[in-house]
Design brief:
Radius of gyration: 20 Å
Distance between the termini: 26 Å
CATH class of the largest domain: Alpha Beta
Oligomer: single chain
Number of strands: 11
Structural class: alpha/beta
Helix content: 40-55%
Shape: globular
CATH topology of the largest domain: Isopropylmalate Dehydrogenase
Strand order of the largest sheet: 3-2-1-4-11-10-5-6-9-7-8
CATH superfamily of the largest domain: Isopropylmalate Dehydrogenase
Number of domains: 2
Order of helices and strands: EHEHEHHEHEEHEHEEHHHEEHH
CATH architecture of the largest domain: 3-Layer(aba) Sandwich
Length: 341
C-alpha cells in the first residue's frame, strides 16, 4: 500500500509531516510518498536521520496552498503544481492508494474532486469523522464539506456513512440517525423534515431524529447532518474536550488531596485524555470520491499525521470506495446529475 502525503500541508509542515511519515513507515508498514518541495523535505529527512530501510520516497511539487486561503478553487487553478493537487493526481493515476493532507481543507477536498472525480451517484462528497462515545465510536457525516444541502444529499451522506461503518468500523448493521433540535419527526428546519422523509425509506437502519446531546452517548452508529451543523458540532466537541482537560488540571493543582487522588487515577485520566484527543483519530475521510482521501487537522503533529495515515490504510483495507459505489448503485440515485465528473 502506498500513501501520498501532502508534506507541505499543515501549520507545522514540513517538519511534523515528515516526522509523521517516518513513524507511519516504521509502525504501519506502508509506503509513503512525500509530496512537496524536494529540498525542504530532504533537509528534514536528513535532520531526522534519514529514511534508511523505510519505504519513503519524494515527489517534487513546488506550489503550496496557504492554510488561510479563502478561495481554494482559484488558488488551485493558479497553482497547478500545488502539493495537494500533485498528491491527488498520484491517487487518480493509480500510483498511490490514498492521499493524506493536513493543509487547507477546502483545497484538499476540491483537489480530490478535481482529480479523483466523484463516485457515480454522489452529487456531494462529504467529510466523515469518527466521534468518541460512551459506547465506543460513531460516525458524524457531513462534518464540514457542504454548508448548504438538499434532502437527497443528506440521504446520500447516510448511505456513505453506512458503507463506511460496515466496511471500516466493522459494524454489521449500523444504525442511522438524523441530527435535529428534537426527536419528533416534525422538528427541525425544512431541510431536516424533508430529509427525514427520505431517510425513512432507507431501511430499518434509520432510527429517527436525535439531538446533539445524544451523540456522545452512542445513540446511533451514524449521525447525519449538513456540513454547516456538523462542523459546529465537531468544533464544539473539540473545544469542550480541551476545556475539560484544562479545568481538571486547574482543579487538581489547587488541593493536595486532589493531587493524591489524581495520582491514583492517573491511568484512567490519561486514557480519557487520549480518547478525547483529535490526534488519536488522525483525520476525517472525504467520502464520495474515487479514491481514499484523509483530511487531517491543521494543527497535526507527527503522531496525528501517523494516525491519519493509519485511517487511510484502514479505509483502503476495508474497500470503502467500492462499498460506497456498490451501495449507491444498488439503491438508485435521486439527485440532479450522475455525479460522474
Amino acid at each position: 500500500m502506498k500513501v501520498a502525503l501532502d508534506a507541505m500541508g499543515g501549520d507545522f509542515a514540513p517538519a511534523e509531516t515528515v516526522a509523521g511519515a517516518l513513524l507511519a513507515a516504521k509502525e504501519l508498514g506502508v509506503e509513503i510518498v512525500l509530496v512537496g518541495d524536494r529540498e525542504r523535505i530532504e533537509e528534514r529527512l536528513a535532520a531526522l536521520g534519514g529514511a534508511k530501510g523505510l519505504a519513503v520516497s519524494v515527489v517534487h511539487a513546488g506550489g503550496v496552498i496557504a492554510m488561510d486561503e479563502h478561495h481554494p478553487v482559484e488558488a488551485l487553478r493558479r497553482t497547478r503544481d500545488a502539493s495537494v493537487l500533485v498528491a491527488a493526481d498520484l491517487v487518480a493515476r493509480g500510483e498511490a492508494s490514498a492521499m493524506v493532507s493536513a493543509g487547507n481543507t477546502g483545497a484538499a477536498m476540491i483537489a480530490a474532486i478535481m482529480r479523483q472525480k466523484r463516485i457515480r451517484g454522489v452529487d456531494r462528497p462529504a467529510i466523515a469523522t469518527v466521534f468518541p462515545t460512551t459506547t465506543g465510536y460513531c460516525l458524524l457525516i457531513d462534518a464540514g464539506a457542504n454548508a448548504e444541502c438538499r434532502p437527497h444529499h443528506i440521504l446520500t451522506f447516510a448511505q456513505m456513512g453506512v458503507a463506511y461503518a460496515k466496511s471500516v468500523m466493522g459494524i454489521p448493521q449500523p444504525t442511522v440517525a438524523l441530527l435535529s433540535n428534537g426527536e419528533e419527526e416534525t422538528k427541525g428546519t425544512e431541510l431536516v423534515i424533508a430529509a427525514h422523509e427520505l431517510l425513512r425509506k432507507l431501511d430499518s437502519s434509520f432510527i429517527g431524529n436525535i439531538e446533539g446531546k445524544d451523540i456522545p452517548f452512542g445513540k446511533a452508529d451514524v449521525v447525519v447532518t449538513d456540513g454547516f451543523t456538523g462542523n459546529i458540532v465537531l468544533k464544539l466537541a473539540e473545544g469542550v474536550g480541551e476545556a475539560i482537560v484544562s479545568m481538571l488540571k486547574d482543579s487538581i493543582s489547587k488541593s493536595l488531596v486532589c493531587k493524591i487522588g489524581a495520582l491514583l487515577a492517573r491511568p484512567a485520566l490519561k486514557a480519557l485524555a487520549r480518547r478525547m484527543d483529535y490526534s488519536e483519530y488522525g483525520g476525517a475521510l472525504l467520502l464520495g470520491v474515487n479514491g481514499v482521501t484523509v483530511i487531517a487537522h491543521g494543527r497535526s503533529r507527527a503522531r496525528a499525521i501517523k494516525n491519519a495515515i493509519r485511517a487511510a490504510k484502514s479505509a483502503c483495507d476495508g474497500g470503502v470506495v467500492d462499498s460506497i459505489a456498490a451501495m449507491t448503485a444498488a439503491r438508485g440515485y435521486e439527485g440532479g446529475n450522475d455525479g460522474g465528473t
